[in-house]
Design a protein that fits this description.
Blueprint (H helix, E strand, L loop, with lengths): L7 E7 L7 H11 L5 E7 L6 H7 L4 E6 L13 E2 L1 H6 L4 E4 L5 E4 L2 H9 L9 E5 L3 H12 L3 E6 L6 E3 L5 H6 L2 E4 L25 E4 L8 H8 L3 E3 L2 H16 L2
Parallel strand pairs: 1-2, 1-3, 4-6, 7-8, 7-10, 8-9, 10-11, 11-12
Antiparallel strand pairs: 3-5, 5-6
């Protein structure tokens, strides 16, 4: 894994995460702050059960880590405590490691999404479609509800409070003027993939938001832009949640 021997270690827990900007973001941050004893690495695990070994191995230097796809829910059983908002959301994307070795989970995704979406909103934006039902989508739903926007989950399989892509028709698309892609479809290098929604019903009143930021303009966003929709990628969300994570890690 090539973990650097530094006294303050941070990282990103996920699966197949070479595309992620988090390592570069924090690497630059540590350089700017002249924190030579800080490092940030990728914990790229095919099996989250290997997390325990990493925590034991790095117990003297590990201070905290971010969590991404597909472990935002699966990480919870490894934690000793969970913040109230993260518990309400049901997903964790930031973990603080205390001096006694205890792990506490937080969710900063909802704040990153909420604050980056808010400038785009107008009074007609009352309902939203959330594409995907993973950990990130739960934070998005929590943020939307706090903005008085009613969320509806869309997935390949139907379940309670979830509709399928086959259910999406002109009425639903035109009734939900905010559409958020919380799936990995379109992430580099698979840039030709996109969620299967009827883009022909998208219009100028829509906001299409993609949590993906690599590439900066996914096919999902390109298709929305062609229809005159406002578009937004997930880079600002990443930056806001990262700064909040850093704030959490710095608190005693």
């Amino acid at each position: 894994m090539g973990i650097e021997e530094k006294s303050n270690l941070f990282g990103l827990l996920g699966k197949n995460i070479s595309y992620s900007f988090s390592r570069g973001y924090f690497g630059e941050k540590f350089k700017e702050l002249d924190l030579k004893d800080h490092s940030y690495v990728n914990f790229d695990l095919q099996d989250i059960n290997k997390l325990g070994k990493i925590i034991i191995k790095e117990k003297n230097s590990l201070r905290g880590f971010n969590v991404t796809i597909p472990y935002k829910e699966a990480v919870i059983p490894f934690l000793d405590k969970i913040d109230n908002k993260a518990a309400a959301i049901g997903a964790v994307n930031t973990v603080k490691v205390f001096k006694n070795g205890k792990l506490k989970g937080y969710n900063t995704d909802y704040l990153g999404f909420k604050n980056s979406l808010r400038p785009f909103l107008r009074k007609e934006h009352k309902k939203a479609l959330i594409l995907g039902t993973g950990g990130a989508s739960k934070a998005v739903a929590f943020a939307l509800s706090s903005l008085d926007i009613k969320p509806t989950f869309v997935s390949r399989n139907t379940s309670d409070n979830v509709i399928t892509y086959q259910d999406l028709n002109e009425e639903l698309i035109k009734d939900n003027l905010v559409i958020i892609n919380c799936t990995p479809l379109g992430t580099h290098p698979n840039v030709d993939q996109t969620p299967d929604i009827p883009y022909n019903f998208i219009g100028e009143s829509h906001i299409l938001y993609d949590l993906i930021y690599n590439p900066s303009k996914t096919l999902f966003l390109q298709k929305g832009e062609l229809k005159g929709a406002q578009i937004k990628n997930g880079l600002e969300m990443l930056e806001i949640q990262a700064e909040k994570a850093w704030e959490i890690w710095q608190k005693e």
